[in-house]
Protein backbone atom coordinates (compact mmCIF):
# COMPACT_ATOMS: atom_id res chain seq x y z
CA UNK A 1 0.00 0.00 0.00
CA UNK A 2 1.37 3.41 -0.96
CA UNK A 3 1.04 6.11 1.68
CA UNK A 4 -0.16 9.46 0.39
CA UNK A 5 1.27 12.77 1.51
CA UNK A 6 -0.56 14.31 4.48
CA UNK A 7 -2.88 17.26 3.89
CA UNK A 8 -3.77 20.15 6.16
CA UNK A 9 -7.40 20.09 7.32
CA UNK A 10 -7.22 22.89 9.89
CA UNK A 11 -4.99 25.63 11.20
CA UNK A 12 -5.59 26.35 14.86
CA UNK A 13 -4.20 28.95 17.26
CA UNK A 14 -2.30 26.73 19.70
CA UNK A 15 -0.63 23.38 20.24
CA UNK A 16 -3.36 22.50 22.77
CA UNK A 17 -6.13 23.07 20.21
CA UNK A 18 -4.18 20.96 17.72
CA UNK A 19 -3.77 18.15 20.25
CA UNK A 20 -7.52 18.19 20.91
CA UNK A 21 -8.34 18.11 17.19
CA UNK A 22 -5.87 15.29 16.55
CA UNK A 23 -7.27 13.33 19.50
CA UNK A 24 -10.80 13.73 18.17
CA UNK A 25 -9.80 12.62 14.68
CA UNK A 26 -7.84 9.64 16.00
CA UNK A 27 -10.78 8.62 18.19
CA UNK A 28 -12.78 8.36 14.97
CA UNK A 29 -10.18 6.02 13.46
CA UNK A 30 -8.37 8.56 11.28
CA UNK A 31 -4.62 9.00 11.05
CA UNK A 32 -3.85 12.52 12.24
CA UNK A 33 -0.95 14.63 13.47
CA UNK A 34 0.00 18.27 13.88
CA UNK A 35 2.94 20.49 13.01
CA UNK A 36 3.86 23.44 15.19
CA UNK A 37 6.91 25.59 14.52
CA UNK A 38 7.37 26.30 18.23
CA UNK A 39 10.56 24.43 19.14
CA UNK A 40 8.68 21.51 20.66
CA UNK A 41 6.40 23.74 22.69
CA UNK A 42 9.23 25.70 24.30
CA UNK A 43 8.61 28.84 22.24
CA UNK A 44 4.81 29.20 21.88
CA UNK A 45 5.17 32.76 20.58
CA UNK A 46 6.53 31.23 17.37
CA UNK A 47 3.04 29.84 16.62
CA UNK A 48 2.01 33.16 15.06
CA UNK A 49 1.05 31.47 11.81
CA UNK A 50 -0.92 28.79 13.65
CA UNK A 51 -0.56 25.07 14.16
CA UNK A 52 -1.47 22.81 11.24
CA UNK A 53 -3.60 19.70 11.77
CA UNK A 54 -2.74 17.02 9.20
CA UNK A 55 -4.41 13.82 8.03
CA UNK A 56 -3.74 11.26 5.32
CA UNK A 57 -5.12 12.45 1.98
CA UNK A 58 -7.66 9.64 1.86
CA UNK A 59 -9.01 10.72 5.28
CA UNK A 60 -9.39 14.40 4.33
CA UNK A 61 -13.13 14.44 3.60
CA UNK A 62 -14.01 12.54 6.79
CA UNK A 63 -11.72 14.75 8.88
CA UNK A 64 -13.26 17.93 7.50
CA UNK A 65 -16.77 16.61 8.30
CA UNK A 66 -15.79 15.72 11.85
CA UNK A 67 -14.16 19.10 12.48
CA UNK A 68 -17.10 20.93 10.89
CA UNK A 69 -19.50 19.06 13.18
CA UNK A 70 -17.55 20.32 16.20
CA UNK A 71 -17.63 23.89 14.86
CA UNK A 72 -21.38 23.61 14.22
CA UNK A 73 -21.92 22.56 17.84
CA UNK A 74 -20.39 25.84 18.98
CA UNK A 75 -17.27 24.26 20.40
Automatic annotation (TrEMBL):
Superkingdom of this protein's organism: Bacteria
Pfam family, any one: DUF2007
Gene3D superfamilies the UniProt entry points to: UreE, C-terminal domain
Coiled coil: none
Domain DUF2007: 13-70
Protein name according to UniProt: DUF2007 domain-containing protein
Organism name: Asanoa iriomotensis
Higher taxonomy: Bacteria, Bacillati, Actinomycetota, Actinomycetes, Micromonosporales
Amino acid sequence: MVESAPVTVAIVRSRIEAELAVGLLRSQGLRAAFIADDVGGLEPQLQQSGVRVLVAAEDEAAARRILADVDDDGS
